Structure formats: structure tokens, C-alpha cells
Amino acid sequence: MSPKSKSEELESEALKSDPEADPENKDAGALEAKMSLMNGITVIVGSIIGSGIFVSPTGVLKYTGSVNASLLVWVASGVFSMVGAYCYAELGTMIRKSGADYAYIMETFGPFAAFIRLWIECMIVRPCSQAIVALTFSVYVLKPIFPECEPPEDATRLLAACCILLLTFVNCWSVRAATRVQDWFTYAKLLALFIIIAAGIYQLCRGEVQHFTFEGTTDDVTSIALSFYSGLFAYNGWNYLNFIIEELKDPVKNLPRAIAISCALVTVVYTFTNVAFYTTLSPTEVLGSAAVAVTFAERLFGWFALSIPLFVAASTFGAVNGVLLTSSRLFYAGAAQGQMPVMLTMVSARATPAPAVLAVALLSLLYLTVSDIYALINYVGFATWLSIGAAVLCVPVLRFTQPGLERPIRVNLFFPVIYIICTILVVAFPAWASPAETGVGCLMILTAVPVYLLLLHPRTRMGCLSSVTNYATLLVQKLTLSVRPKTK
User: Fold this and answer.
1) pLDDT of residue 129
2) CB atoms inside a 10 Å sphere around CB 154
3) Angle, nearest 10°, between helix axes 414-433 and 221-234?
4) Which of 394, 362, 452 is nearest to 118 (CA)?
5) Helices (H), 22-125
6) Contacts of 317 by beta carbon, 8 Å cutoff, 6+ apart
């Protein structure tokens, strides 16, 4: 046998997985199904409900023009999200791999389309979203300390970084700890919303219904489409449980149940929270408020209104955890398919994808240094709906191309067809209304093409980086005590 080269030795050592060698680490090297139905519900609810419903639910009202029309859009957006979630239930129980949209697009349309989805989501959308939510958390934690002015920018970014680092440690420590954080902070944000809803019911009983009219409703089709864009953005996150399906107990039963319960609960809560706001605040006041929930509480709760910023902070803290928990599994899924560095497939002795968690955290911390990260999200916002539409398109395509796949849940094709048509409209109208932002977003998406050609395509990729990646993989393995997952 000819002697191996140094790089081959490093590669074989990096890819080696022998957790059974140590009986105390018998569970190392594999993601485990530890999440219950309740954990799944809190992951979805906690990921959907962030700061938006508390802070500024003005986009829908702005584009519809009236309170009643905005409430109809909130309900319709919830129903639309349920239809998408129903389609994802078939995909999730048929293709039981972490990664959700990425895994479904890979199975249906191949590696190039899947990599574009992976690139834009992993490198921009997820870390940017996490950085923004972490900044919102720090603003509301610091708000009671700086009641008369905005908190200092440096202090805000530093606290946001601390939030990300703390949750990174929790997610590297154990899945159970991460889901427990998700559970408790989801309960906290629901408690805050139920307090607001209860106050709204009290106001309704007092006859405060003067703002509930269709007066001023727009008849412009573009504005109505933009109102749905704002409403659907508030429901973003209903597909997050699919990203970690390998860690969900009995996914065939628990995935559709968790999705159905979560989407119905969020739709009811969002709608009644908006009703509560309009029992006390006029449309003009809602449009002019930077923090609608705070303004509402100041009107009705007296000294108790001071607790609302803390509830918003708890809500955003849980949302940061939800993004980190699910995003790390997207990195993990991409690496498992060979489209990201192999080190991201490593699983620690505590059965967590620690390298992937650290990768998400480092990117999020990097984006905290950018002056205007909100603009990045606006540029690629339509890409999120394009990719979700592409994932739903996998349902009818796979029916014809792979009819033999096991489908524990079989969706009527009427639902994916309707969802795809509506998604095209939701994407097309904002793109028509904001061509400059859409153009920049398209350019950002196209940056995936040279990366794919230089690093992944078998004919054009550069082979000179293998020794560097092997050394990096070994270093990450040693720092995180991680190995490749077991193969079944």
C-alpha cells in the first residue's frame, strides 16, 4: 500500500467518527430526537412572534387605508400561512431531513438551485435577521434606563452581542436547554399579548368601537398586495420547525399537529391584538407610534406600562433563540450535502451541532458592525418568499417525478397551486413598486453563482483549498470536541 500524503491523512482524520470508542460518549456524533410536540409548538410560535406585533404593526394599516380592511388582511395572511404550512407538512413527513426548503429544493431541482437558496439564507437573511432582533432586544432592555432618549448606539450593539453570545452557549450546551429557553420566553410573549387582548376585550365591552370602519379603504391593487406583503412578513417563521425535523419525536404525527396548532394560535392572537390596539388608539395614532404596544399600555395600564418594554425584550430574546436554533440546522444540512465546509456537519458530545451554531453566531456578530443592516433585509426580503414558493412547488413536481415516495400526509394539489399563484403575486407587486431594491436583491442572490462555480462545481472548482479546509476542520473538531455524525 502506498503511503498517504499529509493532506489525505488530515482528511481521513477529520472525517473519522468513532464515538463508540468512549462508552460515556455513546450518544456523541448524532442529532437526537428530543423535541416533544409542545417544544415544536413553542419553536414555531416563538419564531413567528418577535417584536413586530408589539412595536409597529403599521404596514398593513398603511397600505389598506382602514381598520377593518387591515384586520381582514391579518386574518387572510394567517390563513395563507396555514395553507403553506399544510404543504410543508407533506414535504416534511416525506423528506425527513433537516434544512426544510433547502432539502426539498435539493431533492426536486438539484444542487445548483438548492445552493442559491442556501447561500442567500445562510449568509444574509438569517444572520441579518438575528442581528436585527438582537438589537431590538437591547433597545427595549435599555429603554427604562434611558426613558427620555434613544439608548447609546455602542451600548445597544454591545448588549445585542452579549445576547447572541449567551444564546450561542445555551445552544451549544444542549438541545434541551435551548428548547427550554424557547418554551419559557414563548410563554412570556404570549402572556404579554393575552394581557393586551384582555384589555381590548374590556374596552370592547365599554363600547369602544368607533375606529372599526371601512372608511378610507384603498382600491389600488398594488397597495393591497403590499399590505399582504407586510402581513405575511409578520407570520414569517411558520416553517422553522421543518429545519430541525430530525430532532422532533414522531415527526409524522407531531409536525402537522405543531404547525396547525401554532399557525391557528398565532392568527387568533395577532388578529385580537390588533383589535385591542384599535379599541384605544385611532388609526392616525397607530401610524404615528414607534411602539404601538407601549403607547397602548400608557393609555390603559398606568404604572404597569413600564413592564411592556420588558415583555418586548423577552419576546425578542426568544426570537433570537429560535432563529439561532433553526439556522444552525440549515448550516448543518448544507454541510451534510457537501455544499458548505465539512466542519459544519460536526456534532458535539452533547449531541448539538456546535460548529454550525458558532458559524451562525459569528456571522450575526459580524453584521452587528454594519451601519445599515435593515437595508440588507429589505433587499432580499422577496427572495425569502421566492424560495418558499419554490419549496411549495416541490409538492406537485414530486407527485409527477417521484410518485413512489412515501407520503404519510397527502395534500390536495389545489392548495399548493393556489399558494404558488398567490406567492407570485405577492412577490411581483412589491418588485414592480420598488425596482431599485429588487435589482440590488437580485444582484446579491447572483453572488451565489461564482461561489458555486469556484468552490462546488466538479468541473470548475479550485482544488487548492482542500489542505486549508482540512486544517480548519481539525481545529474546529478539537475546539468543540465534535465528530462526524453516525450514519444509519
Assistant:
1) 81
2) 8
3) 110
4) 452
5) 37-48, 52-55, 59-64, 67-94, 101-109, 111-120
6) 137, 163, 167, 185
CB atoms within 10 A of CB 324: 25
What is the four-CA torsion angle of 145, 146, 152, 153, rounded to 10 degrees?
90
What secondary structure letter does DSSP report for 123?
A: I
- Rounded CA separation 223/429 (Å): 9
CA neighbor of 393 nearest in space, from 120, 109, 111, 116: 109
Kindly report the number of other CB atoms within 10 A of residue 265's CB atom: 17
In angstroms, what CA-CA distances link 59 with 54, 62, 158?
A: 13, 5, 29
CA distance 64 to 347: 48
> What residues in the chain have per-residue pLDDT under 50?
1-29, 487-488
| Each residue's pLDDT tens digit, 294-305 | 788 888 887 787
Q: How many CB atoms lie within 10 A of CB 397?
A: 15
Please state, in angstroms and rounded to a whole number, the distance separating the CA atoms of residues 289 and 158.
26
For residue 168, what are the contacts with CB-CB under 8 A and spacing of at least 6? 324, 357, 358, 360, 361
Residue whose cell numbers read 389598506: 64
pLDDT of 163 reads 93
Q: Residue 154 has which C-alpha cell? A: 455602542
**Whether 454 contacts 461, CB under 8 Å:** yes
Question: Which grid coordinates are listed for 407?
Answer: 407520503
Contact 238, 84 (CB under 8 A): yes
Query: What residues are paired with 348 via a beta bridge?
Result: 482
Q: Which residues pair with 248 in a beta bridge?
A: 35
- 304 exposure class (CB count in 10 Å sphere: 0-12, 13-18, 19+): exposed
pTM: 0.77
The answer to whether 56 touches 273, Cβ cutoff 8 Å, is no
Q: How far apart are CA 141 and CA 132, in angstroms?
A: 14
Q: Say what the pLDDT of residue 267 is.
A: 92
C-alpha cell belonging to residue 9: 491523512
Residue type, position 206, single letter: R
